[in-house]
Write a structure and sequence with these properties.
459 residues, alpha/beta, Alkaline Phosphatase, subunit A, Arylsulfatase, C-terminal domain, 28% helix
Length: 459
């Protein structure tokens, strides 16, 4: 597809969703906006999961979480299947030198990833304290990458995974989970635009105002790296990808299969092949990124991946055809508690199937203990959840009107329910066989019970 293989630079961060100026948000993100303006920006890019490790696993393997095995957090003893391969391994086999900067959070064993060079310490989990993993802050990671590029300490072509800590919440002194405003600064809460899917309340505005400091740090980090690429004279021959793993760390976003939870930025820049200044509204899943990258660097795409390449879409390659998606799938199984959900989204509809007894909206621990979480606990964190949800995204884009039982939507309900089941069946989803136990089940089963028993059955 290209005359020579480009370098590949994958920049990713936490909990950002599409909270960027280039997506119409009321925040200045000039570096990311410029990256998007010079390349391709995807308006409807969604992740396979509204949580970190499972979504990152999909990005790196091209397979959905229940296929690659990473159905919960990597530091929670969930792992990719032993035979699962990831993007840097495919590229290394094709002659690329591979580098890891900052965090990765798809395995507890960094050696399992087989990078040629690991430039960061503590690259698994971002931590819950502002003092933990300082090296993974965007400013510090970008500085290391910049020095690496300026020194020419690489062989071409190279692949570099660059992971930023932000916008992950941190536990603060009062037990509240916030965005470390003492380090990053914050905007005026009265000046921020409210989120359309949450009530306009003071605590939510305060959280948004603080999160924006972290967003600015991400933007600065991206700018530092792009400047270093230009200074090194390799910006024209480098495929730069910027993305995140799920929506922002707010109620109804992180941890939820609503659009706000699975939406994610995706921008690609590669002047030699990708048309600049294009915005695409096609449905795209983050399992599609791996096959697209392999296509762009002329490496065969494995048959086993769930994703499909959109390289022909962004390059206008007349010798290839782009197979447009008419639906994407999302899921969640384990986070800090059992939350089994499967979802299907089309251009117009979202169908969600819930498989456990839980509150209306699942709030991950960091969101639950945030100012935003406190504002909605009674409305979202207490009432029982319905087992089926259906949203007409044309009439209710915020997914706040469940029409699953309305007579005029029954044909849609049955069709999407059938398609979701067929997808689960075709991909051997273990949830069809019953509750899915955590990866460390054997250890948990040996914990002493309060009654004094030596073991108990959590299933």
């Amino acid at each position: 597809m290209v005359d020579s293989r480009p370098n590949v630079l994958l920049i990713h961060c936490h909990d950002l969703g599409r909270y960027l100026g280039c997506y119409g948000m009321d925040i200045e993100t000039p570096s990311i906006d410029a990256l998007a303006a010079d390349g391709a920006l995807f308006e409807r890019h969604f992740t396979t999961a509204p949580q970190c490790s499972p979504s990152r696993g999909s990005l790196m393997t091209g397979c959905v979480p229940h296929v690659n095995g990473l159905m919960g957090l990597a530091h929670g003893d969930w792992e990719l299947h032993d035979d699962e391969r990831i993007l840097p391994q495919y590229l290394r086999d094709a002659g690329y030198e591979t580098h890891l900067f900052g965090l990765q959070h798809i395995t507890q064993d960094t050696d399992r990833l087989e990078y040629d060079h690991v430039h960061s310490e503590g690259n698994l989990y971002p931590g819950v304290s502002p003092a933990v993993h300082q090296a993974n802050r965007a400013r510090n990671v970008a500085s290391v990458v910049s020095s690496f590029l300026e020194a020419g300490a690489y062989a071409e072509p190279f692949f570099a995974s660059v992971g930023f800590f932000e916008c992950h919440r941190v536990e603060e002194e009062n037990g509240r989970y916030g965005f470390d405003a003492g380090y990053y600064g914050a905007d005026d809460p009265d000046e921020v635009r409210p989120l359309p899917y949450l009530p306009d309340r003071r605590g939510i505005r305060q959280d948004l105002a603080e999160m924006r400091g972290m967003v600015s740090a991400i933007d600065e980090g991206v700018g530092t790296i792009i400047d270093a690429l230009i200074a090194a004279g390799i910006d024209e021959e480098t495929l730069v990808i910027f993305t995140t793993e799920h929506g922002i760390a707010f109620p109804r976003a992180k941890g939820a299969c609503y659009d706000a939870g699975i939406e994610a930025v995706l921008a690609l820049r590669y002047p030699d092949a990708i048309d600049g200044g294009e915005r695409y509204d096609e449905l795209v899943s983050n399992v599609d990124v791996l096959p697209t990258v392999l296509d762009l660097v002329d490496v065969d795409v494995p048959d086993a991946v769930d994703g499909r390449s959109f390289a022909a879409l962004v390059t206008d390659d007349e010798d290839d055809s782009y197979e447009k998606r008419d639906r994407i799938f999302a899921e969640m199984t384990w986070h800090d508690m059992y939350n089994p959900v499967r979802a299907i989204r089309t251009d117009r509809f979202k169908y969600i199937r819930n498989f456990w007894h839980l509150p209306r909206v699942y709030l991950p621990a960091d969101v639950f203990a945030s100012e935003s979480g406190r504002e909605v606990r009674e409305s979202d964190g207490v009432p029982a959840r319905q087992y089926e949800e259906l949203y007409d995204l044309r009439d209710a884009p915020q997914e706040d009107d469940n029409v699953v039982y309305e007579p005029r939507y029954q044909d849609v309900r049955r069709e999407l329910s059938r398609e979701l089941y067929e997808w689960m069946d075709a991909t051997d989803d273990p949830l069809l066989d019953g509750p899915v136990v955590p990866g460390d089940y054997d250890e948990i089963a040996l914990w002493p019970h309060e009654s004094g028993d030596n073991r108990f059955d959590v299933r």
